[in-house]
Amino acid sequence: MKTTLSCIKADVGSIGGHIQPSRLLVEAVRSKIAEQAKELKLDYAISHTGDDVAILMAHPHGVSYAPIHELAFRAFQAGTEVARQQGLYGAGQDLLKDAFSGNVRGMGPEVAEMEFEERPNEPFLLFAADKTSPGAFNLPLYLSFADPMFCSGLLLGPKLMKGFRFVIMDVDCTEGDRVIDLNAPEDLYQIAALLRDTERFVVEAIYNRTTGEQAAVVSTSRLRNIAGKYVGKDDPVCLVRVQSDFPATGEVLAPYALTHYVAGFMRGSHNGPLMPVSQGTGVSYFDGPPVVSCHAMCVHQGRFTEAADPFSHPFWRSIQDHAAAKAVEMRRQGFFGPAMLPYSDLEYGGIVQMLDELEPRFKMRPAEKAVPV
Ligand code: F6R
Ligand code: MG
Ligand code: MG
Known about the structure:
The chain is 26% helix and 25% strand. By secondary structure, it is of the alpha+beta class.
């Protein structure tokens, strides 16, 4: 049977600053989804990571199915209502529009969806990240799907050896979805050349070249492109099918041990290491560090199993310590150099305005003439 996984995530309010949602808010989202679960033939799992609430749904209706998107939108509106009643900070922050208009994409929440023919057993991972942007998944996905140093299946797994097709989006383009298809391993350097620029080029989807099956999908929206100004980072989600004709769960998890530096730490304007955390972890130090949680589940005939929590395994404790040390080290240089994002990616109030005001005060000094010898 064909199943669609839809993950829709948003920040609609937080206790104690931008750090985590309240229990009542999460419950309000859950009960709104529950109201229509039967009618829409969906199963669901609600979770939170940092200040974001993720609604994961399995259903038979395909991607961009308006009633599913509308239900998620209404659930976030219900969460916003509770946030307002409780006086939570940033109530409704990610709902950029009031009226639903057919697709929640472009309205603030992050959306990652894929439809596939269910395998007899269908394990997959949901990654939810906070205080970062969709490009945060570029490096882990590149390593899991294109580098045999991380994915031994590319050398050992008969159905993986032909490699994977990457669909990469230019998220700076606001006129439409500007995408390119590149094949690993032949186009490896081209893939690398694009994906290193995490603020502009983002993995949208990955497909197995032997079977044609979709392996992964990432939310790609840029809030600032939608809103026309900075309104928070995009805090992405990513779904990855695993095992058999896809990388093994452990091969998809392995790159997260790098705790690579990503954009989005404090005010969406700093770089910080991506720390793998248990489900339901908030953020803390310097509104971060950027975090990523993982739900490992199977979907069977449109129903979810319970979720395992791979990043709560003892292995990740020393990795978390390493990420904390990297965060502190980066913070030692405050706003200088790579600690703060470049001018083009800031767009958070102060500096941009300050630099604009300084613009007329710059003088053009004539270049000194060379003294003839
Ligand atoms: C980042 C984030 C926070 C805020 C910061 C300032 O995604 O949500 O780092 O940018 O706490 O928030 P305001 O401007 O609301 O006081
Ligand atoms: Mg937020
Ligand atoms: Mg957030």
